[in-house]
């Protein structure tokens, strides 16, 4: 008997039922095996061809021609720009401090505010600020710059004020700030930070510009070190009641009001001598610069 190819072939009723069940089970097994193999091939194809990498623009030049460049200490990926050669971190949590914020910090360092207070105002970290302050104070020149004065009768007032700093081992040391100002211009014309001996008085005298050492009349208190350093003909030791040292005494008060490290009974003391000296010189240069602008 001939059958049409489109019509299903009937199963002979003479076949045993066990054989029919076995054939159906075999066909189902083959069907599911083929499907599982096809699924595995699709998964392998997807792993062979990964998704295209998301373009990460360079924060400096905006170019998308960037490649992977390892990672930083905390595992965050780092990239390298092929156009401007800039290296950057993807999605950084620590952002660089802008120039405007650094200029604000420079102004705050001239006021009576602690480093932690500057951190609260500007939002920078304390560790970054301490590193920034260390570098800035170490680069401050320790030499007076004043306007040129013609030779003639010049008058200066000299005095010394005490300050202290505390080391990490909780040892406190006293350092005296020797100052000399021009009575007429109010400029600070001499400074030295050291002990209260004749050697420090000599350092103060040597810090004066040459025209002051040659022509200036110096008013001081009765401390013996001045008598051994300043020429006797131009040295005028006086008491506070005479008013001849009012300007230098007022400057000492300005120092204590403006420089937090010099405030008495304060927690804003220095723990490093270099920063202690650098902060004082930083204020001196700004003080003279403000006088020159007025």
Primary descriptors:
3-stranded antiparallel β-sheet, 5-stranded mixed β-sheet, Nucleotidyltransferase, domain 5, alpha/beta, 294 residues, single chain
Structural notes for this entry:
The chain is α/β, with parallel strands linked by helices. 40% of the residues lie in helices and 18% in strands. Among the domains are: 40 residues; 140 residues, Nucleotidyltransferase, domain 5 (2-Layer Sandwich). The protein has a 5-stranded mixed beta sheet, sandwiched between helices. The chain has a 3-stranded antiparallel beta sheet with strand order 1-2-3, with no helix packed on it. Strand 2 and strand 3 form a beta hairpin. Helix 4 crosses helix 9.
What are the secondary-structure elements, in order, as H or E? HEEEHHHEEEHHEHEHH
The CATH superfamily name of the domain at 154-293 is: Ribonuclease H-like superfamily/Ribonuclease H
Average of per-residue pLDDT values: 84
Count the DSSP helices. Answer: 9
- Roughly how much helix do the residues carry, as a percent range? 40-55%
- The dominant shape is elongated
CATH domain topology of the domain at 154-293: Nucleotidyltransferase, domain 5
Unreliable stretches (pLDDT < 50, length at least 5) are none
Q: How much is the radius of gyration in Å?
A: 41 Å
Strand residue percentage:
15-25%
- Regarding CATH, which class of the domain at 154-293? Alpha Beta
Measured distance between first and last alpha carbons? 123 Å
Strand arrangement across the biggest beta sheet: 6-5-4-7-8
Structural class based on helices, strands and sheet pairing: alpha/beta
The count of β-strands is 8
